Amino acid sequence: MTRSSEPGADALGAVLVANRGEIACRIHRACRAFGVPSIAVYSDADAEALHVREADDAVHLGPAKPAESYLDQAKVIDAARRSGARAIHPGYGFLAENADFARAVEAAGLVWIGPHPDTVEAMADKERARARAEAAGVPVLPASPRLEDGLDPAALAEAVGYPLIVKAAGGGGGIGMRRVDAPDELAAAVTATRTMAERAFGNPAVFLERYVPRARHVEVQVFGFGDGRAVHLFERECSIQRRFQKIVEEAPAPGIAAPVRAAMAEAAVALAERERYRGAGTVEFLYDDDTEAFFFLEMNTRIQVEHPVTEMITGRDLVLLQLRLAAGDPCADLVQDVIEATGHAVEVRLYAEDPARNFLPSPGRFETLVFPEAAEHLRIETGLRQGDAVTAFYDPMIAKLVCHGQDRGTALERLGAALAATRIEGLASNRDFLVRLMAHPEFAAGRTHTAFVEHHGPGLVAPDSP
């Protein structure tokens, strides 16, 4: 393949994308834009997948089970060696926030396209991350230490205050979090969260954190240069969630006063600078809609699922910036004073799931999968085609639809039209749920919060129900 390489491309060389699906396709496109070959990895279930077709080369990892393919560190590094790759981009999920894998990549003489492994390790532990955020002057919620043997959960809960959340210390993505409103619910929630954390992360440690009833989830996109300098690319609103996992993201966050918005960005940059952060990252905050106070939640040391909304309002390609930095480019054009936001962007995550059954995954094969044509104001991010199957082995995301407009109303109108033009047959999806959500008067007015789906869900799932 003939390529027109960007400065620094030769220094980076071929990039192995240690992921699958839409994010792997996204990174392959960035590699083409940068002028470097991209190499896919795949399991038995993904042999004909779109992310394999879009790469310059591909290496088979093993069986469909993630533990025997995408999560097998030795196999991924061996695939890089065999393919001649000189760098590994982890995307999000799988091994993206695994410090041991990052160290193993560097020990193998490969370039790790991500933050320093020590940063990955520190931020993967929520308790340590909270301490580092406090040291950087970032506000945090009242919380307990880990519930180690010998500590009394009931006493710690009283000190934190009800309602509270039981959280996995080493977790992410909202997995296993449980709300507790009263003391008699605590023991069962702690046990269940520990079990989930052990299964999902191999780490059963949990802690307690104050729950904010009228909360919004707002995060700041940062980019660090690894030398103590960092910039922000504004914030994203991610409050529309089910089971603590995001389904709608937008930028900028509606209805937040400019001074609060600026304070969030300043806090996020302060943490990134203190950590000497390298590359793209996200500092997540809980925003109290009643008091306008905000509190540190966690830092994601990777590219986010929702990064396209930031790209749509800033015109900056975050994955390309990751590649440039990894190739030794100082990214001198990424200066805070010249980063601007224009208009509004909204992203929805289209899932193979059944909203009427508490959003349970709905694996199956697409008899029909048709999206509207992409345009300047519409991005379709997917790793699936008509005839492909959503399996039970991986995340059931079908696609991300992202729309931009000169204002929020225009972006929502365009997104609603794009969803209405999307046809899915052969399995259940949340498409109709998202169409109703886009038209909901409370959402249209920007009155979002993390319990929005819980409060309005019945009407969104089945609009004729009481």
Describe this structure in words.
The protein is of the alpha+beta class and 466 residues long. Helix content is 33%, strand content 24%. It has helices at 9-12, 21-34, 50-53, 73-83, 99-107, 117-124, 126-135, 153-160, 186-201, 258-274, 307-314, 318-326, 408-420, 431-439, 441-444, 452-461; strands spanning 15-17, 38-43, 57-62, 87-89, 111-112, 164-168, 178-180, 206-210, 215-225, 230-237, 241-242, 245-246, 248-251, 278-288, 294-300, 344-351, 353-354, 360-361, 364-365, 368-370, 378-382, 389-390, 397-405, 423-425. α3 (50-53) links the parallel β2 (38-43) and β3 (57-62). α2 crosses α12, α5 (99-107) runs antiparallel to α6 (117-124) and α13 (408-420) runs antiparallel to α14. The model has no long low-confidence stretch (mean pLDDT 94).
Task: Provide a concise account of the structure shown.
The protein has 466 residues and is α+β, with helices and mostly antiparallel strands. The protein has helices at residues 9-12, 21-34, 50-53, 73-83, 99-107, 117-124, 126-135, 153-160, 186-201, 258-274, 307-314, 318-326, 408-420, 431-439, 441-444, 452-461; strands at 15-17, 38-43, 57-62, 87-89, 111-112, 164-168, 178-180, 206-210, 215-225, 230-237, 241-242, 245-246, 248-251, 278-288, 294-300, 344-351, 353-354, 360-361, 364-365, 368-370, 378-382, 389-390, 397-405, 423-425.
- Total strands: the figure is 24
**SS summary, helix count:** 16
Radius of gyration: 21 Å
Helix content: 25-40%
Model regions low in confidence, pLDDT < 50 over at least 5 residues: none
Oligomeric assembly: single chain
Structural class assignment:
alpha+beta
Largest sheet: 5 strands, parallel
What is the mean pLDDT? 94
